[in-house]
């Protein structure tokens, strides 16, 4: 299955249950990175518009590029009240955007899907000189006991599982080589989540690697997640340790 098709059956759960990004990260984009009301920003791999919507108030125009039709449709609906947001059918390697038209590019939860060399060429083409790229992931805290047990469940029942957030922690080398001379600013923000059983199961089922309803592992996967929730919940809520990690830099011209 192509990477652009992995979320076709998951858009509803993705929109409902995926984590947002902390206020501190959005403030960082404005005060440190430089997003402003005069900025033209492309959100590449925009999905259902989680980050797209958050950066809309601090940007002039946001061009959301998403290759998966069901995710794109969900994003269009979610952002339909935002006059400065437009959705486009495209991908990181072929955005369809104009040459040197962008001040910033954001990529949320998606960089690990991209062909890095082709994406680098395309980003150079569409960014203005000195335009910046911001890569961001929500990631689970890896050394937490509950997260380790969750990881084991996924490794047992999800054949495409390589780690939470697509194994983004292993992307450090490709991130470094993506930016000019390996120079980028890495920031980390606390983003713990407090989840009900429905939110925990729904968020887990939104992952690209999770079994679909017709998968023979689906029932076992859901039941294992329920048992994990009941083991660690307090008064019907589960604290899921989560961090937001961002990488900001410039690509060589």
Distance between the termini: 34 Å
Shape: globular
Structural class: alpha/beta
What's the CATH class of one domain, please? Alpha Beta
Count of distinct strands:
9
| CATH superfamily placement of one domain | Vaccinia Virus protein VP39
Number of helices: 9
Mean pLDDT over the full residue set: 92
CATH architecture name of one domain: 3-Layer(aba) Sandwich
Explain this structure.
Helices cover 35% and strands 22% of the residues. With 253 residues, it is α/β, with parallel strands linked by helices. It has a domain at 3-141 and 165-193 and 242-250: 3-Layer(aba) Sandwich (Rossmann fold). The strands form two sheets. A seven-stranded mixed β-sheet has the order 3-2-1-4-5-9-6. A two-stranded antiparallel sheet has the order 7-8. Helix 4 links the parallel strand 2 and strand 3 (85-88). Helix 1 packs parallel to helix 4 (69-78), helix 1 crosses helix 8 (197-205) and helix 6 (145-157) packs antiparallel against helix 9 (218-232). It is globular. It starts with 10 loop residues before the first helix and ends with a strand. Residues 1-6 have low confidence and may be disordered.
Task: Offer a quick outline of the entry.
The chain has 253 residues and is of the alpha/beta class. Helix content is 35%, strand content 22%.
Features:
253 residues; alpha/beta; Rossmann fold; seven-stranded mixed sheet; two-stranded antiparallel sheet; 9 helices; 9 strands
């Amino acid at each position: 299955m192509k990477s652009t098709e992995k979320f076709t059956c998951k858009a509803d759960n993705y929109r409902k249950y995926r984590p947002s990004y902390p206020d501190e990260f959005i403030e960082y984009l404005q005060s440190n990175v430089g997003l402003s009301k005069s900025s033209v920003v492309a959100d590449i791999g925009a999905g259902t518009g989680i980050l797209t919507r958050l950066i809309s108030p601090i940007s002039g125009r946001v061009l959301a590029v998403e290759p998966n039709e069901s995710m794109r449709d969900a994003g269009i609906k979610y952002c339909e009240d935002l006059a400065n947001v437009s959705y486009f059918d495209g991908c990181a390697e072929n955005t369809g955007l104009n040459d040197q038209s962008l001040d910033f590019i954001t990529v949320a939860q998606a960089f690990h899907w991209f062909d890095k060399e082709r994406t680098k060429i395309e980003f150079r083409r569409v960014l203005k000189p000195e335009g910046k790229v911001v890569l961001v992931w929500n990631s689970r805290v890896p050394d937490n006991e509950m997260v380790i047990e969750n990881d084991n469940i996924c490794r047992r029942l999800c054949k495409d599982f390589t780690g939470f957030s697509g194994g983004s922690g292993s992307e450090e080398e490709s991130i470094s080589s993506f930016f000019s001379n390996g120079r980028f600013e890495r920031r980390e923000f606390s983003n713990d989540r407090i989840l009900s059983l429905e939110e925990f199961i729904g968020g887990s089922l939104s992952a690209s690697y999770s079994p679909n309803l017709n998968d023979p592992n689906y029932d076992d996967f859901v039941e294992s997640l329920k048992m994990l929730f009941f083991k660690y919940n307090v008064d019907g809520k589960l604290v899921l340790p989560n961090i937001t990690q961002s990488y900001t830099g410039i690509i060589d011209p």
